[in-house]
Amino acid sequence: MSLSITLVIVAQFLIGFGVVTRLRVATNGFSLAGLSMLAGMGVSSVLPFIVQFVHLPIAPKSVFFGLGLVALLSLLLLRGQLIYLREIAAWSRLSVRLCELPFLAFWAYLLFISAWKCAWFPNQPFDTIVGPDLVATFAVKEHTLVSSVFTEHLSSVSVFSNQPFYAPFTAMQQVIYLLAAEGHGPFAFGKVWLTVLVVAFGLFFYGELRERIHPLLAGILVTLLACAPELFAYTLLVQTDWANAAFFAAGVILLERYLESAQRGYLTGSALLFAMACWTRTETIFFVPIGSLLVFAKTIRSSPATAIKRSVGLFLACLLPVLFWNYSFLRGYVPLPPHASLGSIHGITEGYVPHLLQIYKSMNAQVVFDADYWNYAVPIFLFLTVLNVISFRDKHGLSLLIWIAAVYILFGLFIQHIDGANVPYTFRRGFFKLLFLMYVYLGTTSLFRWLSTWLYRWEGRPDNSTVSVKAGS
Amino acid sequence: MRKPSATPLYKARISTNARQFWFTQIIYLMAGSLTLFAILSLPRNGKWLSTTIDRFYNQRQKLGKQTDVATRKREGYGDAYIYTELIRQRCQPDDYFLVPPQQYLIRNAYQQGKSTGYAWLYPSVLYYHLGKAVHLLDMTAPDSLLQRATHTFWVYENKIFLLTFKEHNRPLVLGEFRKYDPHFFAYTPKQARAYYTQSKP
User: Fold this and answer.
1) pLDDT tens digits for A293-304?
2) I want to staple A242 with a disulfide (CB 3.0 to 4.6 A). Which of A14, A27, A234, A419 is the partner?
3) In a domain, A445, yes or no
């Protein structure tokens, strides 16, 4: 790995490390490392815009200086956090057990080939080369985000869709990593950030599951997800959806912690990650109200004013990147061709309900129950959910089931009303979000907690699946 | 008074605990391995690993040693690389390449592009590969601009050639291209096939 790419990764990690440590949202060393990288990648993707707005060229020197500066500033957030860091980085929270080794080896086997394919091949998906990578490539070539793609090309052709106007996270990561690769070497195509993101999310996801349930069970759940072919395919194909699902699921996980503990650090962390999810795919903003409603419902009894403030605050935090990208930058800063379509909403038509039901039917047939995409991940989730509900009949993980149901319902409405949204592409890749949430849910069910307790008792250990690290105030 | 050293009983307890610990760990290792084996042996998982993942590893064995960027682009971009390189070699930055209507290529050279649906012809794909190596024009450009076109793709005997415009062939080519909808675009091979199987224009 070239020195500049290593430095970029380190800088992004440090940016996130300061923020995540300050918020005290990680529960162990694995989730701290993963979440730091995720948050750092998210925050750093704003940097090319700052460089652009201060009239500096999009070039290695300016962008890397900016990254270094933000990383240093972020390290200032570590003041007074040493005890917390010691606590979550304790050996008991980091040590890997023998039973985890086979799973780790298998994931490494999959990750290795994913990383190789991702790095070796140039970007291939149509959506990427006419969208984020087109924007990034010319931003790097022409040293400006307002490149000839926007100023000359789009206005001179009659056929173009909305891919160049996709939310900017993917394009900005491509910009940063293309600058670091300098057009040569094994990472010449700038795509290595996707592998870094997959590893980061994997660490966080596994770290969180492992904190709630026995590592053996966490390993089984992650392996079932890892064997979903479609989910795996997008660990090597640069698109917006994997990153979006990772930010979204991480946001839901932190919000779940907030609903359990009412500690504000989790809410702030969750708002940051949801905002990043909206910064990755704009339509995510339609799913954020689910979180706002859950926050509202949780807090309304104790303090109605706080309930309103926090739920609205969560939504506004996510609206900010959407407004910035779609209105300030695209319609304000960048001259758009007059026939540009950034997506439009169509109203209620005749036969509304039958058409909507037809959409849900297609979603189920073409995506949810298409085993070629997910192998056993969906049926096993459904089986274990039914088993858990029948056996335990309690409310553990109910909010996650609400997330899953609401996101699914909203996807149908979204496809019904938004031009260009469809089942085979939009929902298929949007389903990554639901898949992650399904397995987060399983990790919180009474069934898995009961199994974990049983395993811990068998080995003569106290059940350490509860979170003892305090989140930020 | 002498402090009692670690007694044999204490040592024995530590040793029993350590033995117990490792016994548990070994059992877990076996349980983890067996569970993983069971998951990977499920028919769909097994098939995925032995086809897709194996194919990827074979691909790595075949291609992994080649590190130069041009080879990787050729392998990754397929048709797009072949045709855009042809344009790059034959055109100058002040030339105008007329993007033929996609329907024209699908209709006349379907076999050649059926696996890609001619998605490489999409103007933004051409711009992604060519940048400012040539000016791109499409059939919606005003007639005055179309007259400036210097090159295009033309089909002869079901094969695509790079054609240089001359005074004598320009009316013929533009006349042929005008038979097709310039706004049509098939994004997938399926859409291209659907168009191809329709009646002729």
Assistant:
1) 999 999 998 899
2) A234
3) yes
